[in-house]
Design goal:
alpha/beta; Aldehyde Dehydrogenase, Chain A, domain 1; Aldehyde Dehydrogenase, Chain A, domain 2; 2 domains; seven-stranded mixed β-sheet; 15 helices; globular; binds nicotinamide-adenine-dinucleotide
Length: about 500
């Protein structure tokens, strides 16, 4: 990564963003705008359109018309593939520009953002472009006088609502399979990080995606997100974000056209370290990275450290040492390990969790406070709290910040019981050299993904989905495609 190129890009002024509807930029119907604050220094970076219900309705109507006239769904698969491949190429050609814009908007450290954001978005779009002409229908094993065929059809109009922590990566997880299967999409980025995703949507048009097939509306969740959720003309809603919003989306679906709703929600993922882990130093470093990269604003963050009592003190000290060695600061410096918290509100919420943890008997081993306040930005020291009991707030509620709660255990059974003691089930890890135990942990811990002797780094070939209150359905892999298809049976008497 070239620091001087990054520094040149960070000085550039950011133009005001408007909606993207029917292939053109349109302001909010009432002219409203939202100030976009940079978490790096708290200054206003630019504005986006503050969408209204009328704006969202126009975007949905345009997407519906695009779907019905077949300008995209009706194209041969090879033609659709060409456009999506070109889009992935354009994202890669603009990788630094997109990454820096995204970091100025959401505060993720550039060392992580460049790969995880535009880099991974391009890989995802290409994956589904390559897959789109390899999805076949089926012929059923019917009696001889019947031909039973199963057709796979696009669902129609997909609404996609995206959070702020990895807008391009998560956006691509929805847009890639939805568009590859021939659907039209109405995209609603987060008001806390919409710029890079809006720019990525513009690149789709440059790549040749027909107008109206991908419309994007910026603004507040409770206005434009609600209008999307309540629409009678959206067939499937795909969402990544908080459980509270996820509940509302299910309600919106029930109150409107009973659209299918797929939710990727939060977690309180257990990172379980046994005394027989193959390399405790390595485990400590990966544990620190598994919670503190992107300031803990990662859905699968290993936010609960469950550690065997016999190595508790030694292991916690090693994790504290590893986390203190991580540099917190300017997210646009290539040397930074941990960037900024997305917003003032999120930072204050994180500090509130630390206060509660202390009130409930926890002890701070390192961190616990806001730092670098003089920058005007939102930064927090990586924080480790020990003495977190099974029912403590820090063991039960998602912080979505750089706060690690530690709980000791004395047996494999106790570790499993603690691991499964929340309403979530998104990710987890077990560190052990015992092969039998490793497989037992994979089976016993109720999560969507279980790591063994590592944390994070799973790629797009495998699904990511939660169970319990972490959500339903999956992003990534060929399994994600199922969300964007209807099955239709043809029963033909011969
Ligand atoms: P959020 O729920 O506040 O917002 C997510 C999106 O929903 C935003 O675009 C927002 O504008 C929109 N929204 C808000 N209120 C709405 C409403 N009433 N109707 C419709 N839309 C509405 O979540 P966030 O703070 O942006 O993201 C953090 C959360 O996302 C965390 O809980 C995190 O764990 C979760 N997350 C999950 C995954 C996963 O794959 N499971 C990945 C990343 C983040």
């Amino acid at each position: 990564m070239d620091q001087s190129k990054i520094d040149t890009l960070r000085e550039q002024s950011v133009p005001a963003f408007s909606h993207l509807i029917e292939g053109v930029h349109v302001p909010a119907s009432d002219g409203g705008t939202v100030d976009i604050l940079s978490p790096i220094n708290g200054t206003v970076l630019t504005t986006t359109a503050k969408g209204t219900k009328a704006d969202m309705d126009a975007a949905i109507a345009s997407a519906r018309a695009a779907f019905e006239d077949g300008r995209w769904a009706g194209q041969p698969p090879a033609a659709r593939k060409k456009v999506l491949m070109k889009w992935a190429d354009l994202i890669e050609e603009n990788v630094l520009e997109l990454a820096v814009l995204g970091v100025r908007d959401n505060g993720t450290e550039i060392s992580m953002a460049i790969k995880a954001e535009p880099g991974s978005a391009a890989v995802t779009i290409r994956y589904y472009a390559e897959a789109l002409d390899k999805i076949y229908g089926e012929i059923a094993p019917t009696p001889g006088d019947i031909l039973g065929m199963i057709h796979k059809e696009p669902v129609g109009v997909v609404g996609a609502i995206i959070p702020w922590n990895f807008p391009m990566m998560i956006g691509a997880w929805k847009l890639g399979p939805a568009l590859a299967m021939g659907n039209s999409v109405v995209l609603k980025p987060s008001e806390s990080a919409s710029l890079s995703l809006m720019r990525m949507a513009e690149l789709a048009l440059e790549a040749g995606l027909p107008p109206g097939v991908l419309n994007a509306v910026t603004g507040e969740g409770h206005v434009v997100g609600e209008a999307l959720g309540l629409s009678m003309d959206v067939d499937v809603l795909v969402f990544t974000g908080s459980g509270a919003t996820g509940r509302k989306l299910m309600e919106y679906a029930a109150r409107s056209n009973m659209k299918r709703v797929y939710l990727e929600l939060g977690g309180k993922s257990p990172n379980i370290v046994f005394a027989d882990a193959p390399n405790l130093d390595e485990a400590a470093k990966v544990t620190a990275g598994g919670i503190f990269r992107n300031s803990g604003q990662v859905c699968v963050a290993g936010s609960r450290l469950l550690v065997e009592a016999s190595i508790h003190n030694e292991f916690v000290a090693a994790v504290a040492k590893a986390s203190e060695a991580m540099r917190v600061g300017d997210p646009l410096s290539v040397d930074t390990h941990i960037g900024a918290i997305n917003s003032d509100d999120q930072l204050n919420a994180n500090l509130g969790f630390v206060k509660t943890a202390i009130a409930e008997g926890g002890e701070i081993i390192t961190g616990g406070e806001r730092i670098l306040e003089e920058t005007g930005g939102y930064y927090m020291a990586p924080t480790i709290v020990t003495g977190v009991t099974k029912d403590a707030t820090l063991a039960q509620k998602e912080v979505f910040g750089p706060v690690l709660g530690v709980t000791p255990f004395s047996s494999e059974e106790e570790a499993i019981s603690l691991a499964n003691s929340t309403v979530y089930g998104l990710a987890g890890a077990a560190w052990t050299a015992n092969l039998g135990r490793a497989h037992r942990m994979v089976k016993a811990v109720r999560t969507g993904v279980m790591h063994i002797n590592t944390y994070g780094g799973v790629d797009g070939t495998v699904p990511l989905g939660g169970i319990g209150q972490s959500g339903n359905g999956s992003d990534k892999s060929l399994h994600a495609i199922e969300k964007y298809l209807n099955l239709k049976t043809a029963w033909i008497k011969l």
